[in-house]
From TrEMBL:
<dbReference type="GO" id="GO:0005886">
    <property type="term" value="C:plasma membrane"/>
</dbReference>
<dbReference type="GO" id="GO:0016887">
    <property type="term" value="F:ATP hydrolysis activity"/>
</dbReference>
<protein>
    <submittedName>
        <fullName>ATP-binding cassette domain-containing protein</fullName>
    </submittedName>
</protein>
<dbReference type="InterPro" id="IPR050763">
    <property type="entry name" value="ABC_transporter_ATP-binding"/>
</dbReference>
<keyword id="KW-0067">ATP-binding</keyword>
<dbReference type="InterPro" id="IPR003439">
    <property type="entry name" value="ABC_transporter-like_ATP-bd"/>
</dbReference>
<keyword id="KW-0547">Nucleotide-binding</keyword>
<dbReference type="InterPro" id="IPR003593">
    <property type="entry name" value="AAA+_ATPase"/>
</dbReference>
<dbReference type="InterPro" id="IPR017871">
    <property type="entry name" value="ABC_transporter-like_CS"/>
</dbReference>
<keyword id="KW-0046">Antibiotic resistance</keyword>
<keyword id="KW-0813">Transport</keyword>
<dbReference type="GO" id="GO:0005524">
    <property type="term" value="F:ATP binding"/>
</dbReference>
<dbReference type="GO" id="GO:0046677">
    <property type="term" value="P:response to antibiotic"/>
</dbReference>
<dbReference type="InterPro" id="IPR027417">
    <property type="entry name" value="P-loop_NTPase"/>
</dbReference>
<feature type="domain" description="ABC transporter">
    <location>
        <begin position="2"/>
        <end position="237"/>
    </location>
</feature>
<dbReference type="Pfam" id="PF00005">
    <property type="entry name" value="ABC_tran"/>
</dbReference>
Length: 315
């Protein structure tokens, strides 16, 4: 559904050169739900904008929904849906009229547009607000309108740029239910960007991590966590001296009277370590064991925490 080869975008602004995306190779199969993760400025939006023909690449090629982005941008646009960051917010028309206008814009006939608008209002649970002005809706409702607008012409591929940013946790969960449901019932391929690691982890079947314009990981969330991060076991000792001795035996990070160790399988390692340490006269007074997160994956790959960067950017 999407193949990109060495896609690159370099911006030149005010005498400065920004390598926004460098040599991006990408392959997305029909029906996949892919989450594109990365810190602010990683190049996610630029990638989406190139794939949706809104921005010409500096070099490289891509074929999207069967059409070449350089040679047939109109073909790409007619086959895809694109929901940018916060698109419908300022619209003054009523929800239903907005959908009708979008259908007409996409070249659909009046009858077909009306039927399709009704279908989307129903499936995205917009019935109660269909006659209200888009401007007056809540953030979550507006995002659902955005998605309906992106889907009016029945695209087989939908791009969503940060669909849930700025929503409260309840609206985020609700929006995701709709996205997952859409994928399940229509088989639409969905390629979205998000800052929310938990969302990508739970809902996408495939996660691509981008940093400084390059894809640095591409797999299922489970595989990435297993391969790159592992479980994290924290052991607490009666003294810093004991903790230091334990760290010398097991490795890991030593902080005061506790140590933290990454291991592929904490369930199995933990009882063994406690036994071995005990035999060496190092008594473990408390132990915790935590499954890895995608943030641990990002940390393992870059030495930085995506969560902290996201929080700093949102502040
Ligand atoms: N039109 C532009 N002119 C100059 N630089 C740009 C332009 N658009 C993006 N950039 C730069 O390209 C880099 C990638 O930006 P991009 O918006 O693709 O990142 P992103 O991963 O989508 O970030 P965010 O999560 O904040 O939306 C950044 O350094 C950004 O400042």
């Amino acid at each position: 559904m999407i193949t990109a080869r060495r896609l690159t975008k370099t911006f030149r602004a005010k005498g400065r050169t920004v390598d926004a995306v460098t040599d991006l190779d990408l392959s997305v199969a029909p029906g996949e739900l892919v989450a594109f993760l990365g810190p602010n400025g990683a190049g996610k939006s630029t990638t989406l904008r190139m794939l949706t023909t809104l921005l010409p690449p500096t070099s490289g090629d891509a074929v999207v929904a069967g059409c070449d982005i350089r040679r047939d941008p109109a073909g790409v646009r007619s086959r895809i849906g694109y929901v940018g960051q916060g698109t419908s917010g300022g619209h003054t028309q009523r929800v239903r009229d907005e959908l009708h206008a979008q259908g007409a814009f996409s070249g659909m006939g009046r009858r077909e547009t009306r039927a399709r608008a009704d279908e989307l209002i129903d499936s995205l649970e917009l019935g109660q607000v269909a006659n209200r002005q888009v401007q007056s809706l809540s953030g979550g409702q507006k995002r659902r309108v955005d998605i309906a607008l992106g889907l009016i012409h029945r695209p087989s591929l939908l791009f969503l740029d940060e669909p849930s940013t700025g929503l409260d946790p309840h609206s985020r969960a609700n929006l995701w239910e709709h996205i997952v449901d859409l994928r399940r019932t229509t088989g639409t391929t969905i390629f979205l960007t998000t800052h929310y690691l938990d969302e990508a982890d739970q809902l996408a079947e495939r996660v691509m991590v981008m940093d400084h314009g390059r894809v640095i990981a591409d797999d299922t969330a489970a595989a990435l966590k297993q391969r790159l991060a592992g479980d994290r076991v924290t052991l607490e000792f009666g003294s810093a001296t004991d903790a230091a001795a334990a760290a010398a035996r097991l490795g890991g990070d030593h902080d005061g009277s506790s140590i933290s160790v990454a291991t592929p399988d904490g369930d199995v390692a933990l009882p063994r370590w406690i036994r071995d340490l005990d035999a060496a006269g190092l008594e473990v007074v408390a132990a915790t064991h935590r499954a890895p997160t995608l943030d641990d994956v990002f940390l393992a790959l870059t030495g930085r925490s995506l969560r902290e960067e996201g929080a700093a950017a949102a502040a």
